[in-house]
Amino acid sequence: MSSLTPVEDAFLSTRMKALVAEFEFDPEYANGLKIFAHKQEVFEPIWSAYRSMLENGKLDRDLKELVRLKIAQNNDCSPYVEKQNLRRLRFAPEIAASLSEEKIAAVGAFEVSEVLTKREKLALKFAEKLGIEPESLDDEFFEDLRSEFPDEEIVELAHVAAVGIGFERFLAVWQPRVCALDTR
Amino acid sequence: MVDKGLNEEKIAEIENYEVSDKLTRREKLGLKFAEKMGIEHRAIDDKFFSLLREEFTEPEIVELSIVISVCIGWGRLLSVLRSEETS
User: Fold this and answer.
1) What would the DSSP string read from start to end of A73-107?
2) ipTM of the complex
């Protein structure tokens, strides 16, 4: 499978080096970041902003990580999904560390899950609709959403989902190509 | 954007870009890449990737990917919020 050439370590910016170092535990992912480093002056700030969205805000991090995992799964982000290894899709080990394996496993068939709350299911449904069928986000759905989330949380959720949809699709296109490289 | 050379004629070509005689091959490939990323990203195969590489360098492909990704997410969000506002 064709891919782009990872940027050599010597040409990584200080911030990009630090970012890559965070993913030393996953050489394929780290190599993917080195491909994005072809435009590191653009990529790194966007990545940092996305990460900040996941780590900060009113919504709890577990909920946002569930949403991100759902989007990644729907985008077929990397062969990890095929392996049903959503844990491997975790953004970084320290983010949403309290998220249970049970909840992660429930993301696929979230609508019939008994371990996810109504609030979590609604957030996942919102992310799924925005990514696959945004035209179905009608007044009825927004009413449901408002029964669990105040407006400021809906806006935060919407931004996390929107950036995630674009970003995870980016990864879905390039990550399998990274995995096809000899990264060891 | 218009000041940088993008003209109304080219903008009008976007919808039917594949048959346009005003857009360059490079522009058509950039648009095709955006379309595939937004609608059928699984269809971005090695054949298409090779075509892309004929016109774009690796840093340009990455830059294009980033721009497209941001537009997909926020563009979709704006379309939803806008329709909500007008309904």
Assistant:
1) HHTT-SHHHHTT-GGGG-S-TTTTTT--HHHHHHS
2) 0.74
